[in-house]
Amino acid sequence: MVDNRYATALVIGSVLSLLATVYLSVAVGTQHWYQYRSLPAKREASNASELRKEDFINGEFDEKTYSDTMFRMNGTLGLWWRCILVPGETHWFKEPDPKMVTQCVSFTLPQQFVPKYKDPGNHNSGEDFLRTYLWRCQFLLPLVSLALVFLSGLIGVCACLCRSLTPTLGVGVLHLLAGLCSLGTVCCFLAGVDLLQRNSFPPDGLEGSLGWSLYLGLISFPLQMMAAALFLWAARSHRQSYTRMTAYRVA
Length: 251
Prior knowledge:
alpha+beta, 5 strands
């Protein structure tokens, strides 16, 4: 029979784990991790903006091309998406103040593993191993985090069927590792964005800000750590109580 304190800890930990999983899943699937804001483009540069838009959407994958376009066209960057702000479809006449819409392009799986170069876009500058592995880690770590939480859920179900709190220790450890992976995702992303801006030549007046998707991914870290603490406490306390009860019966 499980003490009410342990049962309450397990329920609260499960709710926290569920919230963290939802937040991290939404963060991974959305594009608002980092947002760029630049000065308004000049009218005479509209043709150049159209060319950048076409290269961004239909052109070949090139880090220099899509990063410059995001810098100049108020783009947003996510783990799987890159987006720019463009004028919406208008009538045959040119509107003086067209409505701006967001157009996004997803990173394909092979593109996630494309090496980064010291001079973005210049293949002769040599591979930048730090940026390359930071990008790959920001892509892989959230998937590892979600897989660990899923595995811990399976172990929790088995523990309920067996009516035992012993596997809860493993559940807590898996949540601890998942929380570290979530934190590592945010750190790798921010470090990669900072290095990209240092190696590129962003336009004057460019401003960058963190998006709500990044905050969702960041919030999942303390939720997973609190869930891990509750699971580990329940497993440890129950084991100590069981040991004392066994010793008392033997005596």
